[in-house]
Amino acid sequence: MKDFYVGSEVGQLRKVILHRPDLCLNRLTPSNCESLLFDDVLRIELAGKEHDAFQKVLRDNGTEVFLLHDLLEETLASTEAKNWILDHQVNKNRFGNDLAKDVRSHLSSMDNDNLARYLIGGLSVSELDSSLSKSMTLDMMSPSDFLIDPIPNHLFTRDTSCWIYGGVSMNPMAKAARKRETVHLRAIYNHHPMFKNSDFFTYFGDDDQNYDLSTIEGGDVLVIGRGTVLIGMSERTTPQGVEQLSRALFMTGQAKKVIALELPKARSCMHLDTVFTHMDIDCFTYYPDIMKGDIACWELTMGDNEELVTTRVKDGFIKAIERSLGVSELRLIPTGGDIYEAEREQWNDANNVLAVRPGVVVTYERNIHTIKNMQAAGIEVLTIPGEDLGRGRGGARCMSCPIQRDDI
Q1: Which strand (E) or helix (H) includes residue 356?
Q2: Residues 340 and 331: beta-carbon distance below 8 Å
């Protein structure tokens, strides 16, 4: 197997990128959490311990874990990479001439560990030595204002980039609060020693251009295997983005079919993997209130003259998945409990599970009713604490970016 290849959602998970909660989550407050796309503030110490438990479960099950902070720090050892990152985040259009110079100088004086910490965690006015600054912009800011906003959503490494068969999409993110995440992943994949000389395709997002409405987030992308990719069109992933990614997959020969689903544009259904994830070759967990049989569904393939062929699926997305996987009937395991318990558990990411190998998944221990349903269906469930991690509205799948996983 190649060093970097993701052939399915449920084959043995061998390598993954995670991000342990750090300064960026410590900066969350009741007044800024909404703009930073969080519903609540997290206790950083407890969230860190819960994340450590998540890492341990993965390592105990044969998965090599790489932490985003470490990868970014190691990438910054390259002068070319460091300059590229700073060029993309500190410039006169964002700060004005004088303040851009001050911020650039301050960041450049840091060692790589601290630079990674503040690029992810944010830089406040009070942390900048601004006594000699001539910036009018700075004069209009208070000491607690952020010059560089924290990026707490880096916790959800699934979204910013997603590996699909033999390549990666460096995703243009939908929300302004997450766009800088892609800068860090682009730098890592292009400059980190582990990646820069490796053989993989880059499908999408690795260009300095305005992607406009063509946005993709990895929580909507399921590599279900056997040459097929399932993508949800949610509040974060657009049909335009799906078409762009599909074309790249087909042109590189890395996929033969994309199944696209129309999802509600709602916070409770932010991504496909919050309501539908793969647990075994023929088995998915799903939230029945959203994943109904009449969801609009299309199949995308490559036609003549390298044109996309888009076909409306008339017999539903379940049949489309069964055909692609070559199984006679899917096993569909619903969110557990009564109507109230199921809604609560879906909100707490009961359906956002991460398979470490076929039929073995990681999920939050709090979702007891859904866990019972999974176990009754023969799924082995590995539980992790999530009393604080879960406040970020992301489960085990959201918090993981597989970079090497077996086919099915």
Answers
A1: strand 354-357
A2: no
Q: Would 5-67+152-405 and 72-148 be classified into the same CATH topology?
A: no
What is the distance between the alpha carbons of residues 99 and 138, in angstroms, rounded to a whole number?
A: 7
Edge-to-edge order in the sheet of strand 167-170: 161-164, 167-170, 201-204
Confirm whether 398 is a catalytic residue: yes
Distance CA 334, CA 284 (A): 9
Taking each continuous run of H as one helix and of E as one strand, the counts in the chain are 14, 20
Q: Which CATH architecture has domain 72-148?
A: Orthogonal Bundle (1.10)
Q: Are 204 and 186 in contact (CB under 8 A)?
A: no
First to last CA, the chain: 13
**69 CA to centre of own chain:** 15
Q: Which residues of 53-73 are buried (b: 16+ CB within 10 A; e: fewer)?
A: bbbebbeeeebeebbbbebbb
CATH of domain 5-67+152-405: 3.75.10.10
pLDDT mean by block of 10 residues, the chain; 408 residues: 93 97 77 71 84 97 98 98 96 90 93 96 88 81 90 94 97 92 97 95 94 96 97 95 97 97 81 96 95 94 92 96 96 96 92 98 97 98 90 89 97
Catalytic residue among 24, 269, 283, 398: 398
The β-bridge relationship of strands 331-334 and 283-286 is parallel
Domain boundaries, the chain: 5-67+152-405, 72-148
Amino acid present at 233: M
Q: Strands 380-384, 360-364: parallel, antiparallel or unpaired by DSSP?
A: parallel
